[in-house]
TrEMBL record:
<dbReference type="InterPro" id="IPR041222">
    <property type="entry name" value="PriA_3primeBD"/>
</dbReference>
<feature type="binding site">
    <location>
        <position position="523"/>
    </location>
    <ligand>
        <name>Zn(2+) 1</name>
    </ligand>
</feature>
<feature type="domain" description="Helicase ATP-binding">
    <location>
        <begin position="295"/>
        <end position="461"/>
    </location>
</feature>
<keyword id="KW-0862">Zinc</keyword>
<feature type="binding site">
    <location>
        <position position="552"/>
    </location>
    <ligand>
        <name>Zn(2+) 2</name>
    </ligand>
</feature>
<dbReference type="GO" id="GO:0003677">
    <property type="term" value="F:DNA binding"/>
</dbReference>
<dbReference type="GO" id="GO:0008270">
    <property type="term" value="F:zinc ion binding"/>
</dbReference>
<keyword id="KW-0479">Metal-binding</keyword>
<dbReference type="GO" id="GO:0016787">
    <property type="term" value="F:hydrolase activity"/>
</dbReference>
<keyword id="KW-0547">Nucleotide-binding</keyword>
<keyword id="KW-0175">Coiled coil</keyword>
<feature type="binding site">
    <location>
        <position position="568"/>
    </location>
    <ligand>
        <name>Zn(2+) 1</name>
    </ligand>
</feature>
<keyword id="KW-0347">Helicase</keyword>
<keyword id="KW-0378">Hydrolase</keyword>
<dbReference type="InterPro" id="IPR005259">
    <property type="entry name" value="PriA"/>
</dbReference>
<keyword id="KW-0639">Primosome</keyword>
<feature type="coiled-coil region">
    <location>
        <begin position="192"/>
        <end position="252"/>
    </location>
</feature>
Amino acid sequence: MSTKLTKMLLAEVIVDVKSHETDRTFQYFIPEELQKRVVIGMRVLVPFGPRRVEGYVVSLTNNPETPLEKVKPILRVLDELPPLTPELIELSDWLCERYICTRAQAVQALLPGGMRFKSTLVIEASDVTPAILDAREKEVLSFLKNKGPQVKSQLLKDHPSWRGAIAKLLQKGAITERFMERTGVKEKQVAYVVLQMDRESLLQKLDHLQANAFKQKEVALWLLHQGGTVRLRDLLAATKAARSTIEALRQKGILDIEQREERRDPYHGRYIGEKEGKLPLTAAQERAYSAILSMLQTRQAHTVLLQGVTGSGKTEIYLQTIEACVQMGRQAIVLVPEIALTPQMVERFKKRFGEDVAVLHSRLSPGERYDEWRRIRQGEVSIAVGARSAVFAPFEKLGLLIIDEEHELSYKQEENPKYHAREVAYFRALYHGATVVLGSATPSMEVRYAAAKGRVTRILLPERVNRKPLPPVEIVDMRLELKQGNRSIFSRRLHEAIAEKLAHREQMILFLNRRGYSTFILCRACGYVARCPSCDVSLTYHYLNSIPILRCHYCGHSEEVAGRCPECGSQHIRNFGTGTQKVEEELLRLFPEARVIRMDVDTTATKGSHERLLRTFGAREADILLGTQMIAKGLDFPGVTLVGIITADTSLNVPDFRAAERTFQLLTQVAGRVGRHDAAGEVILQTYHPEHYAIQCAVTQDYERFFQKEIEIRHSLDHPPFWEMTVFTAAHESQKEAYRLARETERWMRRRFSEDPEVIVHETTAAPLARLHGKYRFHQVIKYKSYKKVKAELLAAYFHARAKAKKIDGVLSVDVNAQMVL
Ligand code: ADP
Ligand code: ZN
Ligand code: ZN
């Protein structure tokens, strides 16, 4: 290549258009005046068809694909600093390959949401009113006249039957279309007044002012007193000066007005001067710390599993290894599950590292998030703490990637790109020679198994820092309660304990182990739940031609629904599910004097409500905190002396092969909520399956025993971590069409892999959420040993079935390395 050639004429651009047809780069011409600013990773505005869309420059070239005069120019450069680093461009390619998504989707996942430039097609009524209109056209036209401009795609979605009428009205000129553009969030500009001379010259100058210009003198002296630079708004407020006074001073060259960027800091003014030093480490912490440090020093990718119960000092190890990492001139990312990213958690990082921390989570405004992100991109901070997407923090010298509570399912994104933060962390660690630290009291089977195989270094923290033993856990067998005539949600034992705590004015947490829907069938007399003979997941309840049947949605096995329990013959067999609201009603009926805070998706929907409820409880303004999974994490209330688990095994019966693992994790976490401080605590656990190993191991908090048992089952049933699983989901208004669509992927994969012992192609089956938003849903599960081997065919099957889906107005989606199958 010629080294003289410094100028590139063309840019390869990923355009923000969501369709697989546009899932490639497009070439644009770089105008002379933009030569310096169009660099790799830059965000630009480009023409695309009739619109202007956002795009990302991924490479520069001098080889046009089409005649140069046909290539359209880049219109504008949208940022100062390119938002994508070379690493992030590579990462976006990897996301497309690994999770089957478009390039535009991959790029957008890397960046904070609010900054996107959007262009939408809007239609509105024109001045023309044609003489002849049919009834439908009249309806549409009067709707538009009443409501004003409408986003076309949304209107068609809400009123599919209007499609024809809209097309005709456009032809007749009765309505017009145009693109409405909205730039994303921008930096916040604030006007500042800046003194233009030193003290001496100012005083001299003021002496020569007219005698009656006393307001101008006052303002100038005030500004001098303030140090010479003040926000215009503050100056006007403090001096009560008129704009004309400022303007007069400006014309005399005494001051000037400048636009300066002001950062939106979500934590502005908090935690200042509260800096906390590091704690002297315990022997176990010291061992973990030096092990991680020596990995950091190798500058090669490593992964550590830091396994220790809540309170064993994991966070302190994160803090100190981060400090060492920053001293090496490198940067660190800490991921925390969204709901565990509480003010207490943020406070710990802010107090240790002050201004050096950026925080990223969904409760920030788009502007705040954008500014926090830019503090990272511009190298102003070395540490990012955030939820899942913070794994993409645009650092350029990463040393540490920490994932706390690594077993949490929320680390897998459910929309495109359906990435797992742990896998992204591995990618980035490899790129930077960084260390990944996975922290958990109850590691995922995947990670613990990787440690057993030597791919991950496991470091144990065997006890709590304060040496407080874990609380005693008492099991109540709910089958016995029923036998003895108690049909309430509360066992007699739990009822008694609640009454006692209320009498002593002590606080308690009641936990309802529930996940969304309940389609399984339970015998309340003996605990029987129908399960698939080959997958050991509970069967889900479906109607097929209005006959209820039970189905396994992994492998397709089906059987009839029994009217009596096949185990014990009891008739107390039915759909099972208890909502938080119902428990709350029952609680208030039994204990009218109790002050109850209910925490679930309904009571925490508004911004800040989650924190407000927790604060109220923390201030002891309530006796009982009643809630779901949401209350299991990151909470620390010294006043709590009882945790009641209302039905420990609801999560055992969700149709998911991870049910036992989830149950064990949740119970361990919930039990860990008490007795962390001086007050002694107890846990009462109600269950229909007291003998189940997940319950038994949770009671003794014996992770290793649970792991041994569970890993054997996973092995014998061909579940992850021995196999990876990818799920195709087909959805259509007609049940038959949805089924046929899912069958397309099954057939495609069978043709290629029916002889291959390392690939399992399962039968198409109804999804547990068999109908969603008016569409029937079917699943088709593929299991395989190596993604490399199936990748090309998965992609081909996906494109094949998606093309069919398009023709019949259906939806086909794919989830690579699926964690949850709903
Ligand atoms: P985890 O993250 O495993 O739950 P933490 O790091 O939060 O554990 O530690 C639990 C508690 O013990 C915290 O209150 C913390 O301040 C305290 N702690 C941690 N390490 C030490 C130490 N080396 N010396 C004294 N207290 C410690
Ligand atoms: Zn029974
Ligand atoms: Zn099955």
